[in-house]
Amino acid sequence: MIKRILIVDDSAFMRKILTDHISAVPKIEVIGTARNGEDALEKIAKFEPDAITLDVEMPGMDGLETVKEIRKKSDLPVFMVSSLQGSDITLQALESGATDFIRKPKNIFEKKQEFQQEIADRLAILFDKKEKKIQTFSMLDQASVIQKETRAIVIGASTG
Q1: 114 touches 93 (CB < 8 A)
Q2: H or E stretch covering 36
Q3: What angle do CA 73, 78, 80 make, to 5 degrees?
Q4: Residue 143 burial class via C-beta count within 10 angstroms: exposed 0-12, middle 13-18, buried 19 and up
Q5: β-strand pairing of 51-54 with 78-82
Q6: CA 67 to CA 15: how far, in whole Å?
Q7: Enclosing H/E stretch for 105
Q8: Whole-model pTM?
Q9: What pLDDT is attached to residue 53?
Q10: How confident is the model at residue 152 (pLDDT cuts 50, 70, 90)?
Q11: Among candidates 132, 139, 135, 124, which has minimal Cα distance to 50?
Q12: 3-state DSSP call for residue 23?
């Protein structure tokens, strides 16, 4: 199934670069772009994407404010894609509700393949997990496993 992505960045240049990189990933389609948070919220309602990329620094409603607004209505996966670096901004983005944080390379042309691969890997991981989760729930609904005696419940977590 093809996954639909909305790209949000105030730079027309970065919207084009991200569109080119993401469109090159198999089973991923860029369905639109937005130039700021307000525009993004309108386009999310209009296009109903499967995930979005969102810049942190934008005029008007910035990326952190935008992801908070998205979280009020939806659990839509949001990838913060920013040239800002450091653990503080990454933590702020994740605390605001971002799904993941991807750093824009300082020279995108020198790191084009690496950047494209990172985006492809992050999207693949996200969508693979979602599909497995959906399959697991549908199997549980049909299986008689629930009726068997439960001896243990295991919860796994990661900080990464």
Answers
A1: no
A2: none
A3: 135
A4: exposed
A5: parallel
A6: 18
A7: none
A8: 0.75
A9: 93
A10: low
A11: 124
A12: helix
